[in-house]
Structure formats: C-alpha cells, structure tokens
Amino acid sequence: MLSTDRKFHFIAEINITRSKLLNSETSPEDDEVNWLFLILNDVRYSFVYKIQKNQDIKYNLPFTILLAFTFYEFVENEIELNKEYIVQRGEEEIGVIKLIKNIN
Q: 50-53 long-range contacts, Cβ below 8 Å, gap at least 24?
C-alpha cells in the first residue's frame, strides 16, 4: 500500500470489479493495493487513491475516492472532468473512473 499522506488532485467516482488476483471474500476496502492505472490516450498513468468514508463500498457499484496522480504534470492539461476512463490493476482491466472535481 502506498502512502495516502499526499496532496490529492481530484474527487472521483470509481466502479471496479474484484481482480482475479483476489479471493472472493476481499472487499475494495480490504485490498492492499491502493494504486491503479488510468488509461488516457492509450497511455497508462498511475494514481493513488483513498476511499472516502461513510459509504457502502462494494465491487460493481460506484464509490467516491480521492485521487492523486503519480505524475500529475503529465495529465493536468489532458484529463477531463465527468468523462469515464478505463482503470487497470496491473495489466488487468477492472473498471472505470470518472473525475468529478479538481481539488488541486
């Protein structure tokens, strides 16, 4: 798990499925991996996320996160709000993400 003691760039809504690498009892909150990849213009950009509190968190249902890109300067002029992007965990496509608000 990467540190969430960082500056977050966006509030986002993420909708992911359980990775094939996880057992069937794992919930999104139990997953030790808190960094994923967003696909933008066929390029993978890594991000760290922190699940917002006071939500019913389940796979296959959207939930709200704080998001920090690892290299924000590469995406800051390209990324769009309210547009869905593919999310990968390693090479595995696991869902979509929509950036709701820039908090940078």
A: 50/4, 50/8, 52/11
Domains of the chain listed by start with CATH number: 10-102 (2.40.30.10)
pTM higher than 0.85: yes
Q: Kind of pairing, strands 63-69 and 84-89? A: unpaired
* CA nearest to 76, candidates 88, 67, 87, 86: 67
CA atoms of 40 and 55, how far apart (whole Å): 28
For the stretch 41-55, pLDDT in tens is 999 999 999 999 888
